Amino acid sequence: MTFRTAPITYTRKENTVPPTTFGDISREHRRSYPSGTAIVDDQHRLTWPEYDARINQAAHALQAAGVEEGDRVLWLGQTSFRVFELLGACAKLGAMLCPANWRQSDEEFAFVIDDFDPKVVVWQDEEIGDAVRAASKLTQRDPVWWQHDTEGKDSYESALATQGADDLWGPVDVDLPLLVIYTAAIDGRPNGSMLTQRNLLAMAHESSYLTRSDSESVFLNSGPLFHIGNFQWDALAVYLQGGTNVFVPRIEAEAVLEIITREGVTSAFLMPPTIMQMMQLYDPDKHDVSRLRGGPFTPLWNGLLAEDTTPWGSTPGGFGQTEVSGLAVVNGHGGRGQGNSGRPSPLARVRIVDGEGNEQPVGSAGEIVVAGDVVHAGYWNRPEINARRMRDGWWHTTDLGRREDDGSIHFLGTMTRMIKSAAENIYPAEVENCLEQHPAVREAALIGVPDPQFTQSVKAVVALADGSEVTAEELIEHCRERIASYKKPRTVEFVNEIPKRDGVKDYEALDAMFGGGGYPGGDNVRA
């Protein structure tokens, strides 16, 4: 018997079939699941063919408004199926969609509009209309505005109604950015993380493996779409597998119970405070949660839900951030190891490095750096930050960790201080900057105080300018008017001086003085 020993070379042909893109998912599902329900949102119930037709109408409408490959669309509204519709349309066009945090102030909205420079803004009047209208007067941009929660002239629905549903678009580059999520402001301003079509498909494949999602799955999009968590657990997994995505604009425990019962929901993005409210309202004669998979929070349901034996449910937790498509390291791979975060997904590579990029030995702490299909395309319009963070072929997370003897990763904490309130990440620099804009404030520092319900409560420590007076309530209101309400301090402590170490605010001293603690780390998941 003879064996071939010479290397085999392959030449890529000009007519090579292009890879699957995000826009191809709805194209194929309309053929594979012609009667399957893709979308449920209040009175809207769409099969996969109906949904893909609306995606095509949206793509035509965006094109008519001037959106081309590389252009941007901004969503200023609550959770809605139209976000997914626009995501599919932008995927076919090669454009980007950003669902902005709808809880923001008018100034924050205006910042995102100016920074992201969208060709089209789709906005909502209910609850946030005043802030959006004020932002439209503050911004320097002049996008096309479509209101999604109305009908008639300048509405989203009227823009779609005049368009055909034919699919005219050919292959696009799978590495084009598609979903942009503005992350918490580390350096005083938020940055838009650009997730590519490849990133989202990698996330969907990983999540569907961990959650065992399939075409019978029904996911309730009850989390914010400006947060990576809802997409990862389990919206994109269910989308990829041809299941049903149900949408609710915001969390109301009674309404969520009714939707779970009516739609036979199998998974939902729910946080412990909401689950506890739902348990108080649960009535076995009215509600049916028998199909629901509880994930890591199954014990909170007090025996109502069956044990979750999926890799995610039985071994939850991991390490990640928006910039690596959610969780890049999870306990669901290889079982819970010596570390607290598990092992990288098959589409991610992880190293622990020192300040010069040298890989650290097992057991030694260093920065967690990530490469592979999960790493985003960088921040929108931030070339200097991208150059600093995306170097030597690795994404530098600014998070501290170590590799354990069994190969698992132990997340030790963020290298840039962060406060965790419920599901939201709050970085002190942004809130401190807001406080220091008040004329009575000379200097401010932010710490997190352990909170049994929200993980941490935000406390401000403030040194006043000479001769100035201001109350805690006035400072809290000052922040509420200028930044998202969840970022504002809950309490304020006044001091003569902010303690310093080598000229830098000494947060450890402030923690010791005022009971700070409970920062992300240990067994906490960061995403």
From TrEMBL:
**Out of the domains of life, which is the source?**
Bacteria
Q: Which residues form the AMP-dependent synthetase/ligase domain?
A: 28-380
Per UniProt, residues of the AMP-binding enzyme C-terminal domain are 430-500
* Pfam families attached to this UniProt entry: AMP-binding, AMP-binding_C
Annotated GO molecular function terms are: acid-thiol ligase activity
Tell me the InterPro entries matching this sequence: AMP-bd_C (IPR025110), AMP-bd_C_sf (IPR045851), AMP-dep_synth/lig_dom (IPR000873), ANL_N_sf (IPR042099), ATP-dep_AMP-bd_enzyme (IPR050237)
**In its UniProt entry, what is this protein called?**
AMP-binding protein
Q: Which organism is it from?
A: Rhodococcus oxybenzonivorans
